């Protein structure tokens, strides 16, 4: 499943991030807590360099808490801090300002020594499509300035958003890297909705998701769909799930289009359970 998907606005975004880094004090990178590796655009590492950074593991309410903590320990560095958040409910967001102040302590002390009192911290917010950037920004700003949507690619242009806590946020469109060489990375992005369903074979994707869940969370899969046991064949399990949900068409055949949509939607909504697809 080699996927090439690099729309023109993403090329512009990469260039804009590089140019605008000089305007900000720090970077907030938002990742999906269920796929911290796949949702980490390797372009961001090279673009941000040594700029102080906070990694927000968003949608942590949908992830396995123990694995999320392991990721937090793994990703934390001298100039990189990690927080688990739920941007929809605002959980974890209050930790951001004190961590920013700590990361920028020396810089702020130099500014205060020069007589500056009201210091505004300017931060660039980056992340791949559909990871929750706009929802996070709206929560920080306490209004709906940034556009939100459940589809990747909603934010198209750079915009500045002021908050009431002395932080200004620069929103940028989500960018994915040009090509996914690793099938697991591509699948994890597709499972969580970071890649548009329109360019994917959703029936194949649902089959692959069943296969993955059989390996990492078989009990959750069986429980959600009331299966007495799981077969060794993912297709048999998908068929059984379809029958349980009444996804049958004329002649008693499986409606794969319908059950695939249901399965992907329920996984993305956390209805199958708190599941992290990657370990550090």
UniProtKB/TrEMBL annotation:
UniProt name for this protein: Ribosome biogenesis GTPase A
Record lineage: Bacteria, Bacillati, Bacillota, Clostridia, Eubacteriales
